[in-house]
Amino acid sequence: MTRRELLALIGAAPVALKAAPDAPTAPVSIAKCASYNDDVTATLGAMFDQIGGLERIVKGKTVTIKLNLTGSPGLRFKGRPLGVTHYTHPKLVGATAYLMGRAGAKRIRFVESGWALSGPLEEYMLDSGWNVRSLVSAAPGVEFENTNNLGKGKRYARLKVPGTPYMYPAFDLNHAFEDTDVFVSMAKLKNHETCGVTLSLKNCFGNTPASIYGDNAGVDEPNEKPTSGRGTVCHAGERQPSRSAPPELHFGANHDPGYRVPHIVADLVAARPVDLAIIDGIESIAGGEGPWIRSKPLRLVQPGVLIAGTNPVTTDAVATAVMGYNPRADRGTAPFQTCDNTLLLAERHGIGTTDLHRIEVVGVPIAQALYRYES
Amino acid sequence: MLFALLLTLSLPTDWVPARWHWLETKTLELVSGTPVNCLLIDWDPQQRAQAAAFADAAAGKGIATLAVIHPGGDPAEPARDAIRAKLTGVVLEGDFPQDATDRVRAAVAPAPLIELTLRSRMPLGSKAPVIGTWQGVWPGIPLMEDGAAKAGPSGSPWINTNAGFLRAARAFGDSVVWIANSPQPKTVITAENYAQVIGDAAMVGARWVVALDDDLARRLHDGDKAALQVWSRIIRQLQFYEGHRDWRGFRTYAKLAVIQGVNDGALLSGGILDMIGARHTPVRAVPPDRLQPEALAGASMAVNVDAAALTAQQREVLKAFTRSGGTLLTGPADWKESAVPGKDQITLDDKQTKRLDDIWHDINSMIGRGNLGVRLFNVSSMLSNLLTSPDGKQVLVHLVNYSSYPVDSVTVHVLGDYRQAWLYTPEAPEKKLDVYKVDEGTGVDIDLVNVSATLRLE
User: Fold this and answer.
1) Which of B148, B154, B409 sits opposite A131 (nearest CB)?
2) Could you read off the pLDDT of B189-248 as tens digits, one per residue?
3) What is the pLDDT of residue B186?
4) Which residues of chain B make contact with A87, given a CB cutoff of 8 A?
5) What's residue A18's pLDDT?
6) Is residue B327 within 8 Å of B351, Cβ to Cβ?
7) Distance (Å, rounded) from C-alpha B404 to C-alpha B368?
8) Which of residues 338-377 of B touch A (CB under 8 A)?
9) What residues in B contact A127, CB-CB < 8 Å?
10) Sign of the four-CA dihedral B427, B431, B436, B439
11) What was the ipTM of the complex prediction?
12) Positions of chain A with pLDDT lower than 50, given as ranges
């Protein structure tokens, strides 16, 4: 793909959904980083400076960082460490913690709803081959929360979807999503079987606790020992979440995961705004979000990029372009062949613009960072 | 003469066995200076003279030779013939009637007779120095057609293993257990696969009877360089386990006991013991016949698979266990009827697997996140065994990795306070590791495990 072809691609207008013309924008930083053995901390620090500095975002504040640790740690792609395939890499996580600590963050709370996890997130990380002790020592005030259930909280936080929600009027989430000043989505640069791409927006699908939105969620009350994913409630709409939580608005109207999941994600990000998006594209996989995907062949990729921004839609739009796709492509066009475009849905919620002409890219230009995911 | 010969050789309990494809004395060079000290030769009366010369040369190097006799005709006569040819002993491999086995034993005495029989017919709890079977699964992670690993109950890959069966078999008595399964014909067996099958048995104190696939044997005989490298890897793996004889004096350490008899599936692969093993939870197997108070000493949880199988005295032992604070889980009332394995069976059938789910859910809930000796992290492609020294001051954690890839960043949380830790691997000298305190006791991090590693703490 030439630079000219790329520009033509990203200039294409969406067909069905109208973009919100006044959707906010924010700069997005792209940096080259060939390996996790490179100086990830220095690279990331420079990127934060390019988007306005980390201190103004985190100083004296509680920061909650949603990681992407999707799928059981036992499922590996070609036996490779999880961080070089479908998990955010622990070195990037450590570098982020260090920089946030240096920028004066009061508390840095890593969160994730690990697959079938009801115990501590730290143990899930250990099972993923992470050195949790090193992570704890990367900055003062590092802590962990499993958001698949109540975790260390005593009650669920109800986060309302502002404006006109697509699917849910509000979500009941782990307290960590409410008890925070800053919310960070740290994603992986990957395709997604259901949503085309999984970046900082789609990463937030994991905000939903399986105790309420999981296949074996309690009918009336949350099941604090969830053992499954969210297929029946979220993907297929075959059942409602636990009655203790707000129900789906138009239950039974649509069972297509390619419709449902992008709309739910857009609602989630509206309910719990993302203050900082960080996307790990140093090493990853293409073709799907994890080794359990069978619909397309997976392959290891080394885009060698990091992407960061303070707006998740602008950041994901740039990341989608870096993957060689049109971030405003409509359903039917790669990578959204069988799904709605989460980015456009979030844009329509007024979260951010997908229009690359309105997004300032700092650091490495998209054309130089381009790494085509479609084989 | 035979006594003199036996005196020059190791005891059967110390034999490190290998099936041998050849009767050429030059092939003994392959085992010279290695742990392999017992060669199993398929007995062929037409090659009696070569076998006698081979046995003589082997004995001169301190290597025992065993004539392997298979069913078909009266086994006593070829057994006698093999002993007359100065082979060290006889192996009956197959399902022989008991009277035929007794006749062979009488015919070859005082030479040793080793039975490699059906799992279900092993003389468990007997005084035989060595008991064994040819029935085994080939250890490893089974793959689907597209090459992806089959996932187990926890989303982790399932591991085919003989470890649960061998734990159970060893729990019946003091005999050394041999597992003599051979590679499937027409399958590619890598050096890692050989290391895994050796580790799978050795980790739980048993011995795999080394059996080379036909292709490797042919290439090894021809002096093929790659084949010699595989053989070196096999030898290095054997040296790793046989080189630490003191470890054989260590005993199983686990806070969880599973009381399970042969009729309850104790000898089936893929059963309760393997499922607990796949969960990386230390477990001790307790046959009902051995259910004495000391069998549960130090345990905090027990699973009684078939309550109806116990005598009144054994039930009293369990009552005392619960009265002293132990948690007891009892299997479903109709477990036994539906779970009795067939004579030739070595893995669970579909019905038994389904029944296992009934009890597995409860076992899983009972264990929870508890530390029943050790907790291991990032070990989804591994199995392990926890042992303690006779004085209780040391523990060993054997790890075997069944994937084709090394595993890095393994974390070990051992119950209890230990001050020092060492890592042993076949590839490198022992290495001292840092220990640190964790809520449950002592934490240790291991950088990398290829196939086998053993952690020792004191």
Assistant:
1) B409
2) 999 999 999 999 999 999 999 999 999 999 999 999 999 999 999 999 999 999 998 998
3) 83
4) none
5) 54
6) no
7) 30
8) 369, 377
9) 377-378, 380
10) positive
11) 0.87
12) 1, 7, 12-17
Please give the Cα distance from A133 to A90 (Å, whole number).
12
Please check whether residue B190 touches A, CB under 8 A: no
- All residues of chain A having their beta carbon less than 8 Å from the beta carbon of residue B146 are 294
Beta-carbon contacts of residue A276 (< 8 Å; ≥ 6 apart): A57, A182, A183, A184, A185, A308, A309, A310
Token look-up 């050429």 returns: B24
Convert the pLDDT of each residue in B35-48 to its tens digit: 999 999 999 999 99
Query: Which residue of chain A is at minimal alpha-carbon distance from B445?
Result: A131
Q: By the CB < 8 Å criterion, does B389 face chain A?
A: no
Split at pLDDT 50, 70, 90, the class of B127 is: very high
Identify which of A74, A78, A128 has the shortest CB distance to residue B157. Answer: A74
Task: Fill in the DSSP letter of residue A248.
Answer: P
Question: Which residues have C-beta within 8 Å of that of residue A164, sequence separation ≥ 6?
Answer: none
Mutate: best of A84, A87, A127, partner B, most B CBs <10 A? A127
- Output the pLDDT for position B7: 54
What single letter denotes the amino acid at residue A120? P
Least Cα separation, residue A219 to chain B (angstroms): 20
Strand partners, B65: B39
Residue B359: per-residue pLDDT? 83
The DSSP string of A271-311 is HS--SEEEEEESSEEESSSSTT--SS--EEE---EEEEESS
CB B362 within 8 A of CB B427: no
Residue appearing with tokens 């699917």: A167
**Interface residue B146 vs chain A (CB under 8 A):** yes
pTM of the entire predicted model? 0.91
Q: Which residue of A has its CA nearest to B377?
A: A127
* Closest chain A C-alpha to B110 CA, distance in angstroms: 51
Helix (H, G, I), strand (E, B) or coil at A235: helix
The per-residue pLDDT of chain B, averaged, comes to 92
- Which are the contacts of A246, defined by CB distance < 8 A and separation ≥ 6? A158, A168, A169, A170, A171, A172
Q: φ, ψ for residue B351 (rounded to 5)? A: -65, -45
Tokens at A211, concatenated: 């105790």
The amino acid at residue B455 is L
Amino acid A1: pLDDT: 47
Query: Does residue B381 carry a pLDDT above 90?
Result: yes
Q: What is the C-alpha separation between B216 and B225, in angstroms, rounded?
A: 11
**Token pair recorded at residue B103:** 């006749």
DSSP A178: T
B contacts of A231 (beta carbons < 8 Å): none
Tell me which chain A residues have a C-beta less than 8 angstroms from the C-beta of B380: 72-76, 127
Contact B377 A123 (CB under 8 A): yes
Q: Which residues 6+ apart lie within 8 Å of B323 measured at CB?
A: none
Give the C-alpha distances (Å, rounded to integers) separating B264 from A141, A183, B114, B190, B336.
52, 53, 26, 35, 6
Cβ neighbours of residue A119 under 8 Å, at least 6 residues apart? A146, B369
Whether the pLDDT of residue B153 is over 50: the answer is no
Query: What chain A residue is nearest to B365 in terms of C-alpha separation?
Result: A225
User: Residue B355: exposed, middle, or buried by beta-carbon count in 10 A (0-12, 13-18, 19+)?
Assistant: buried
Q: What angle do CA B101, B105, B108 make, to 5 degrees?
A: 135
User: What residues of A are in the B interface, CB distance below 8 Å?
Assistant: 71-76, 78-81, 115-116, 119, 123, 126-131, 133, 291-292, 294
Cβ contact A127:A119 at 8 Å: no
Q: Which residues contact A144 (CB under 8 A, 6 or more apart)?
A: A109, A110, A111, A120, A121, A122, A125, A132
